[in-house]
Design brief:
The protein is α/β, with parallel strands linked by helices. The chain is built from twelve helices and nine strands. The protein is 41% helix and 13% strand. α1 packs across α12. The protein binds phosphoric acid mono(formamide)ester and norvaline.
Length: 301
């Protein structure tokens, strides 16, 4: 049997993605109504975290509990990974003990190697290059508030980082237009821009970039692993803060999303975080429901 991994969003077809988003909303309703949904009894998820996390860790762990299984948190400081045991060996050992492996790490190549040596599904819980689990929650949030996203304009304001790369994948899969407003030198991956020219364009000026946008999203200017560049980036991104004023230039009632954690007064204003069109708390909650749907898809297929 071929093992399905979820390393980037296009590991799902368009139809699989749409079905998964629908299922995520169903699972959300089941949870709200206290309807048991223990579809993964006794299944175990191994969670390898080489970077910090609040949402991802708690949502995966809670998801496995609600689904009738369990999760094991593994950090480099208290596993042999931190002492240099090769990723290939770790993958082969873990996959003989657990049913699924979730990994948050630095280089994307590392998770690809993990998947190559794993006999159980590997889920990307963030790498330097991609954050596909967050996109599941973001897309679910858009569908729940506004319906179909195809044909709409979405604007990404800020760093062309892992989140932005995953947004490009989403634009290509669901056929919406992604406008990226970033300063020079902070563009998303060139290979993705080249491959998805019809869905993505770069517009340097944020006010111009958000025109007609049904949704505006942003993220921190310095991602995990870029702490030393914090000051330099703060200067480079001056003028890229998403505020209620900037949102007024977008389409009426445009949604604001942020994967969190947020830095108020940098990439987003404190006022916008609390705006009625800011759906950041629903977005965070949907990590739980979207990942339940993902786990069910990967483990019950
Ligand atoms: N958005 C997100 O992935 O948050 P955490 O870093 O808290 O997991
Ligand atoms: N781009 C951010 C996302 C955090 C969820 C980072 O990689 O740190």
């Amino acid at each position: 049997m071929v093992v399905r991994h979820f390393l980037t969003l296009p590991d799902l077809s368009r139809n699989e993605l749409l079905a998964l988003l629908k299922r995520a909303s169903e699972l959300k309703i089941m949870q709200r109504k206290h309807i048991p949904h223990e579809y993964l009894p006794n299944r175990v998820l191994g969670m390898v975290f080489e970077k910090s996390s609040t949402r991802t860790r708690v949502s995966f762990e809670a998801a496995m509990t609600h689904l009738g299984g369990s999760a094991i948190f593994l950090s480099p400081s208290d596993t042999q990974l931190g002492r240099g045991e090769p990723i290939e060996d770790t993958a082969r050992v873990l996959s003989r003990m657990v049913d699924c492996i979730m990994v948050r790490t630095f280089a994307h190549a590392k998770i690809e190697r993990m998947a190559q040596y794993s006999s159980v599904p590997v889920i990307n819980a963030l790498t330097d290059e991609h954050h596909p689990c967050q996109l599941l929650a973001d897309l679910q949030t858009y569908y729940e508030h506004r319906g179909d996203i195809s044909g709409k304009t979405v604007t990404w304001v800020g760093d062309g980082n892992n989140m932005c790369n995953s947004f490009i994948h989403a634009a290509a899969l669901l056929d919406f237009e992604l406008v990226v407003a970033c300063p020079e030198g902070y563009e998303p991956m060139q290979s993705l821009l080249d491959k998805h020219k019809t869905n993505v364009r770069i517009v340097r000026n944020p006010a111009e970039a958000v025109k007609n946008a049904a949704m505006v999203a942003t993220d921190v200017w310095a991602s995990m692993g870029q702490e030393a560049e914090q000051q330099k980036r703060k200067e480079a991104f001056a003028g890229y803060e998403v505020t209620t004023h900037l949102m007024e230039q977008a389409a009426d009632n445009a949604l604001f999303l942020h994967c969190l954690p947020a830095h108020r007064g940098e990439e987003v204003s404190a006022e916008l975080m609390e705006d009625p069109n800011s759906v950041v708390w629903d977005e965070a909650e949907n990590r739980l429901h979207a990942q339940k749907a993902l786990l069910e898809f990967l483990l019950c297929a």
